[in-house]
């Protein structure tokens, strides 16, 4: 049995939140790029709900639209990109609902860092090389809060300690720090004002295995200690396995599956998710041939009709070439511990006999 996934359930389109556990809702979001060769529909009708205190992982191959989606959530989309439709509502603890699409530039400045923080890809390389770490912290804190310089300076050693760095790091320049230390500094800056939501884009990429482990451990501890909500974007499924509570799988600008981390890794439903999981190398056990996903991602300027994965799907059926599958709840697939449902956009689960009836 499959049920409709009403992304606005509990959240009216006015932005009034009737479900206190929700921090961010995305409804039918479309983010396109105008290019010489036509319109590139990088994010094409994404709906998602993020709960307070959870780590939501966004996974998918390169080019599937992960960064385009997260930059739109932060209202950082830049030309030739633009938001072509949809709604994003944000419900920070001490503020009323914020419509992130229509919010003014001034209001956005007021919530960035304080409520909504961003760790962009390669953020550790964006530290100012001519400023000591303490000054970089102060500049950022003073720009986004009413604190005095002295108050901001007093916070620095505590923040550094929270990410496992010694207080003397405050007096150092970025070139004196290793990659892992710089990434810890950028994370400390991102959490300085205790934001409700941190969006981290590939926070462990470009780090060696040892530092990757440290950053994963640290993000997990910070979430537990500060109760932060994190959207974690990475193509690295092993990072999701260790950090995420839920995972949203993106393919060709849309979400094809959303589920609890256990559900996604133990019993993935969508053939694309199954392909992603089967591409993860396993250590120990029998030697098996890595399967991977055949073919290439289609162009966002010309998505295939029907299910966008049908050109690569090992289980393709005639209707997959014509009918767009909706992201639907699969009944009886609730995670026992979290009580969360699993959502899948695949005709295998909308057929009677295969997954039940379609009662959308
Ligand atoms: N400035 C731009 N102009 C035109 N097209 C763009 C632009 N930025 C991204 N795109 C296109 O949008 C699609 C999605 O890109 P995006 O960077 O969001 O994917 P991604 O999943 O984050 O990939 P990666 O993991 O490699 O960062 C791609 O086809 C990309 O070529």
Would you mind describing this structure in some detail?
With 360 residues, the chain is α/β, with parallel strands linked by helices. The chain folds into two domains: 2-115 and 195-281 and 291-349, Rossmann fold; 123-194, no CATH class. It is built from nine helices and 13 strands. The chain has helices spanning 66-73, 105-111, 133-144, 149-162, 179-190, 209-226, 237-243, 261-266, 271-278; strands at residues 2-4, 22-35, 38-51, 55-59, 81-90, 98-99, 116-119, 197-201, 229-233, 246-251, 254-260, 328-330, 342-344. A hairpin with a 2-residue loop joins strand 2 and strand 3. Helix 3 (133-144) packs across helix 4. The site of adenosine-5'-triphosphate (ATP) has 16 residues, from strand 2, strand 3 and helix 1. Keywords: ATP-binding, Nucleotide-binding, Transport. Residues 24-277 form the ABC transporter domain. This is Dipeptide/oligopeptide/nickel ABC transporter ATP-binding protein.
